[in-house]
Structure formats: structure tokens, C-alpha cells
Amino acid sequence: MLTSTFRPGASLLHRSGAGAKLLGLLVFSTVLVAFQSPLAVLAGFALVAGLYGLGGFGPRTLVAQVWPLRWFVLCLLPFQWWTAGWQVAVAVVGTLVVAVAGAALVTLATRVTDLLDVIARVLEPARAVGVDPERVALLLALTIRAVPVIAGTLHEARDARRARGLERSTRALVTPIVVRTIRHADRVGEALAARGIDD
Amino acid sequence: MIQIQGVSHRYGDREVLSGVDLSLGEDRIGVVGANGSGKSTLARLLNGLVVPTTGRVLVDGMDTARDGAGVRRKVGFVFSDPDAQIVMPTVAEDVAFSLRRHGLGKAEVADRVGGILARFGLGGHLDHPAHLLSSGQKQLLALASVLVTEPEILVCDEPTTLLDLRNSRQVADLLEGLTQQVIMVTHDLDLLAGWARVLVVNEGQVVQDGPAEQSIGRYKALMGAGRPC
Questions:
Q1: Model pTM?
Q2: Both A111 and A24 in a single domain?
Q3: ipTM of the complex
């Protein structure tokens, strides 16, 4: 959900520290999982919806954050209902949806750089075992950045496939995506080196 | 001042540059040449992205092979594809990312980011998703992200290749106004009009080194000579 784009604002949610928001998300998700029940889901949803309102985000924004889960929910909900009953189905699927909505809210109200700073700070002790926290933060930044780039490549490859009359060819779709993604990674690496990011 | 001393470079068995000796001190230096002539490798040698197979490249006395980090602090590099250079999701964050290891406070980073984006006409796009900018704006952002670190020299490898005429003009005007030394590899010969020094690279060698008019004439002659009748 880190791919959600930050939306600037001056709400209390925006002004709160990234560390506090991440900690809040961790506590919220833990409680939600610990109390896994339809009632907890309902309470969690009410809290998240209220926080969306506090951040100045409307119901449409909330729905947009969880919309990508629709197929997953449509598959999981009936399966859980069938195997464990409606209460478990609502608790499991609801917990997932509410937790994702909460995580998306954090990214909507927090700059990625602020989140990366927190991650780098949290990982600082791992430096003792050879982990470079800045490098991990950079890795996350690059992963986030890669999503729209690969989505754009997919779109172009699909158009190119159609233009050549190869709509049904998997190879005509996958090959250019793989080649261009590797080339992009190569160029990004070179650009990072040129910017002295990893010096 | 950049000094290239007896530089050759090979990719595997293929020699892409051979016996290059240059002193680059002028404010504006253009580099032209056919595709595969070695001009991009020449550009990459200047900030240590590529290290010569033989010879050495010195930037204010620093050897690019030994002190790459120091060289890169002095020499900024802009590529033709801004999408590969933009790392962070929003405009302001990408510029700020360049300053991440400069030990500056948040207020100073915000100040420098706001200042350079305003100068580049992107002041109204601070929190805009970077990948949604137009190609021209992306290239301006890539330039801003490099220049925010205040390098003394800027090397550009075909910075206008992917831009339309208007965006290309905008980037060119911006480059023209820089106080830094600019070394630009380009196929857009109009950009180099009036430049004091333009190098022509052909088959791994600098075959012409002189004022723009003279060098562009030589380059056109070289390109014309290989054209099928």
C-alpha cells in the first residue's frame, strides 16, 4: 500500500510524526488481529473511517484504497464462509480490508521520505550485523518507484501487441516487459551512481 | 578543469575510445558524433560512471578511478531518459532525495528544494506525483535533482532527445542560464550554436575540436560521407 500517493494537507493526521503513525498502525493491526471478530472489524472500520474524515479524505478515497482487493475478497469470503462460517469469514476478510485501509491512510497522510527516515532509524541497530539502513530505505524507495514505471511498460507493451495483431500472444506481452524492466533497472542503477546516492 | 590523459576504453573486446587527450576548461563544451561513436562513454568518463581501461581522467586534480565519490560531488550528470533518474514518488521528495546524505536539516532541505523547483518552473508541483509530469517537466525535475547539490560541472548526455521542440527549447534555455560549466552530448546541433568549443567523436576518437561552426561542419561532412547514394 506504500504506492498510495501522498496527498498534502494540514490536518492533525498530516502533522503527526511518521513514527507515531507507523506505531499506531502496528498497534491497531495487532489489536484487530488479536480480537478477530465481526465486532472488532466494525469498531476498527468506524475508527479508520473517522480518521479518513480527520485527514480530510472522503469515502471515495477510502473505497479507492481497498478497491484493488475486490477479487481477493470475492474469492476468500465465500470460501471462509463455507469452511468456517459467516462470523469467521467476516472477521478474517474484514480484518484484512480494514488493516489495508489503515495502512493506506498512513501513506496518504505521510511523505514517503518521512516513512523511509523512520525505517532507516528503526534499522539503525542492524548496522552492527552489516545491514546498511539507508540502503534498505533506498531499496524500498526504488520498489515504490518501480510500480508506475512497470505499469506504464505493461500498458505500452499491450498496445504494441495489439498494433501487431498479436492480442493473444503471451510472449509478445511478457518479453518486452521483462527486457524493458531489466533495462530500466540498469539505467536507474547508473543514474543513482551518477547522483552519488550510494557513495 | 577536467583533464583526460591518454584515455582508452574497451567493453570486452570492443574498443570504444582510443588515445583521447583533452583539457576541458571552457564554460560550454558540446560533444557530437554518430550513434556508437563513443561520445556517451566519453561523457560517462567525466564523473567516474565509467573508468578508463588505460589512461586517467582528472577532475580538479582528483582521479575518477580513485576518488569517484569526490568527483561525483563536483560533476553532476543528466541522462536522456528522466524516468530512469526519478526515484521518489513526488517532485519535492525526488529533489530532496539528492540531499539525503548531505547532513542538512529539514528546514534547509525544504528551502533548497523549494528554491530550485521555483527556479525551474516546478514550484507549483511540489507534491505532484513525479511520474505524472510531462516529459519536459520530468527532464526539468531530473536537472533540478542534480543541480540542487550544487555541482561545479554538469554533464548532460542527450538531455533533449526525448523532448518535443518546446520542451527541448525550455531545457536548452535553462542550461544556457546556468553558472556551472556544461558539457553536453547531443544530436540537436541547434543547441550548440555559438558554443566556443564542440568536439566531434568518430569511431572512438576525437576527430575535430574547435568552435561550434567549424566542428558542426566537419560532423555534417562525416555523416554525409557515409550516406548511401
A1: 0.79
A2: yes
A3: 0.75
